[in-house]
Amino acid sequence: MKVIIEDALGVYSGIQIQNVSNRIEPEKDHIIVYGELVARHDLSVANNYEPEICLNVLDPLGKIIYNTQSTHTGVFWITRRTTFSLKIEELSEKCEWDKIAGIQLSLFWKK
Asked: How many CB atoms lie within 10 A of CB 37?
C-alpha cells in the first residue's frame, strides 16, 4: 500500500514527519501507522499550537474514503519532538479493504 506524506521535510510547516512505518493487517481488520514529529531548527513556527497528524485512507482515484487524526501526550514545544501512532480498528466497517489504494499523512495544528 502506498503511503504519501505531505510536506515530510517540514519545508512549509516547520515540522518534519519522519521515521514513518505502517502495519496493515487485513486478517486482524486494522491499520497502524507510527511516526515522529520533529521541529526544524532552521524554521520558526507558532508556539501556541500543537501539531497532529491527519491520516486519510484513499481509494484508487485518490478520494478520501476514511480519515482520522493522531493525538500525542505532552507539550510538543518543550521537547520539539514527539512520536505518534494512529490505529484504525474494525476497518471493514468503515470502508472496503479492496477499495484501499493508499494512505495520506499530513500535518495540522491544534490550539
From this structure: 24
d(CA 8, CA 30): 24
User: 75-88 burial, b if ≥16 CB within 10 A, otherwise e?
Assistant: ebeeeeebebebeb
Predicted confidence (pLDDT) per residue in 47-80, tens digit: 778 899 999 999 999 999 999 999 887 788 888 8
**Angle, vertex CA 73, rays to CA 71 and CA 74, nearest 5:** 135
Query: What gap in Å lies between CA 13 and CA 109, rounded to an integer?
Result: 10
Beta bridge partners of residue 89, listed in sequence order = 30
Q: What is the pTM for the complete model shown?
A: 0.87
